[in-house]
Write a structure and sequence with these properties.
Elements lengths: L3 H10 L4 E3 L5 H17 L14 E6 L8 E9 L8 H5 L1 H7 L11 E11 L4 E6 L8 E6 L11 E5 L5 E2 L10 E5 L4 E4 L14 E11 L10 E2 L4
Antiparallel strand pairs: 1-9, 2-3, 3-4, 3-5, 4-11, 5-10, 5-12, 6-9, 6-11, 7-8, 7-10
Length: 233
């Protein structure tokens, strides 16, 4: 019987994309985006350092100079030591176990923070510069959850991976809400401008949602390098 962990780790190491279909019930994810939409609509955005004991918080990253990668998005962050109305770490904590399968070596969580981050890229402005994420003892693969359907929730742009020749692929074109995507963090990736034809409306809810199951370094961790911003979207 093939070793599933070695199989996935080999694929991620070779910069292949792993898609897990129907991993999460879309109905639950709809609750998640409804909840986060309510938070963004009725809360003042805030910013807290990523360190143990941080509160769950909503922030806007409107090309925030504190961010490692230039972007325009909303972000709602949840941490395992906090409670929330949907008990997200109880419901989605298994995604960290799946994430670990992308590494040949055991994951070392020292000096890091587990985070479930819901991100919203609004139509007309939402994007993230192409970049590479650090890999090492804390991660090999990056895991994202598909929360929006291209051609239904938005028309153009979205998450892309770029190969060495500069060709972009948009893996979410083949995905449905509830699918997972796992890919090598060192492969160039980003979010192309969502619906570049649309006027930006600051209070509207049109655009692209996704969730990132992340292991992020503590603010005082100097061993793990920063993400590398590679410039324009």
């Amino acid at each position: 019987m093939p070793d599933g962990k070695a199989w996935m780790a080999d694929l991620v190491q070779k910069s292949s994309i792993v898609r897990v279909k129907n991993a999460i019930e879309p109905q639950f994810l709809h609750l998640c985006t409804e909840y986060c939409s309510s938070v963004t609509a009725h809360s003042l955005p805030n910013y807290f350092p990523l360190e143990e004991g941080a509160p769950n918080f909503y922030r806007v990253n409107f090309e925030d100079p504190r961010a490692y990668v230039k972007a325009f998005m909303h972000q709602v962050n949840f941490f395992e030591w906090n409670q929330d109305r949907l008990s997200l770490f109880r419901e989605l904590g298994f995604l960290f176990d799946i994430r670990e399968l992308s590494s040949h070596d055991p994951i070392d969580y020292s000096g890091t923070i587990k985070r479930i981050s819901f991100q919203f890229y609004p139509a007309g402005r939402g994007y993230m510069n192409k970049h590479r994420d650090p890999i090492g003892k804390h991660q090999a693969g990056v895991l994202s959850v598909v929360l929006s359907k291209r051609s239904q929730d938005y028309e153009t742009g979205g998450f892309f991976l770029e190969n060495e020749s500069g060709t972009r692929i948009f893996p979410e074109d083949q995905c449905n809400v509830g699918d997972l995507l796992i890919f090598n963090g060192q492969q160039t990736h980003g979010v192309e401008l969502i619906d570049n034809f649309a006027p930006y409306e600051p209070l509207a809810n049109m655009g692209r949602w996704m969730a990132l199951v992340a292991v992020t370094k503590n603010t005082d961790n100097s061993e793990i390098p920063d993400a590398q911003d590679l410039g324009g979207i």
